[in-house]
Amino acid sequence: MSSLTRMLGLLDLFDTERPFWTSEQIMEATGYTRPTTFRYLKVLRDAGFLARFGGGYTLGGKAAKLDYVIRQSDPLVKLFDPIMSQLRDHIGCEIILVSLLGDEFFATIHKERIGNSAEQSWPRGRPMPLHKGAGGIAVLSAMPKAQLKRMLKSPKIEAASVDVEELLKEIEAAGKQGYAISYGAIDPGNVGIAVPIVLNGVPPAALLIAMEKHRYATADVSILVGLLQKARREMVAVFNAYQIQLEGRSGGADTSTFNSLATASADTQLN
């Protein structure tokens, strides 16, 4: 592991359950020497990723800035938002886009809410275990076998005492039928239906419908899956068009590129 990787890994210590760390706690958690720990902390603090607070450290202003930038300009959100909002309006359920986050989690990167939609316990950016829920199973089903094998050997999977054989059966079933369904895996009263999304050069993702169990009981699953698959085809088409435009721009994409493609995707009808 490189020195840079170890230094950036300190940022992973900070989360909602433990947003404050002292240097001593960091040394204990990582096993790094005092000189190494203080050197890493100084670099991260000088760069704005960490800030001093009450004798310890919290995430700094640079994290807030990056959060704002990604929320305002995430390419996938810009491109897929019109398609997701149309799907939400068409079926009256919450629509969620999730993506792989590192080697052990996936996370919501965009959500189209509706007034009476199912309450989700997992907001944008919060890590979710890969083995829980339709979104995680769909993401896993889209992975190459070598990557999936590595994922299933991760410390988080082992620590959670996951039945890997049963999990593999779920993943294989999702791969064969093209979608995954979970019942109360994330929220006890909800059902999730997800289809995997594979995009060139982008981590595996999934498009998810979240609905209350009582609505699911009267729903036609084949219709819901069909709508998800149609939305996925539109997403892939818009993304591919964006990549073609991007390849023709030596300076990369600008706001007008996103807006023109997003407008085109908004003109697509789901019904």
TrEMBL record:
<dbReference type="Pfam" id="PF01614">
    <property type="entry name" value="IclR_C"/>
</dbReference>
<dbReference type="InterPro" id="IPR029016">
    <property type="entry name" value="GAF-like_dom_sf"/>
</dbReference>
<dbReference type="GO" id="GO:0003677">
    <property type="term" value="F:DNA binding"/>
</dbReference>
<dbReference type="InterPro" id="IPR014757">
    <property type="entry name" value="Tscrpt_reg_IclR_C"/>
</dbReference>
<dbReference type="InterPro" id="IPR036388">
    <property type="entry name" value="WH-like_DNA-bd_sf"/>
</dbReference>
<dbReference type="GO" id="GO:0045892">
    <property type="term" value="P:negative regulation of DNA-templated transcription"/>
</dbReference>
<dbReference type="Pfam" id="PF09339">
    <property type="entry name" value="HTH_IclR"/>
</dbReference>
<dbReference type="InterPro" id="IPR036390">
    <property type="entry name" value="WH_DNA-bd_sf"/>
</dbReference>
<protein>
    <submittedName>
        <fullName>ArsR family transcriptional regulator</fullName>
    </submittedName>
</protein>
<keyword id="KW-0804">Transcription</keyword>
<keyword id="KW-0805">Transcription regulation</keyword>
<feature type="domain" description="IclR-ED">
    <location>
        <begin position="62"/>
        <end position="241"/>
    </location>
</feature>
<keyword id="KW-0238">DNA-binding</keyword>
<dbReference type="InterPro" id="IPR005471">
    <property type="entry name" value="Tscrpt_reg_IclR_N"/>
</dbReference>
<feature type="domain" description="HTH iclR-type">
    <location>
        <begin position="1"/>
        <end position="61"/>
    </location>
</feature>
<dbReference type="InterPro" id="IPR050707">
    <property type="entry name" value="HTH_MetabolicPath_Reg"/>
</dbReference>
<dbReference type="GO" id="GO:0003700">
    <property type="term" value="F:DNA-binding transcription factor activity"/>
</dbReference>
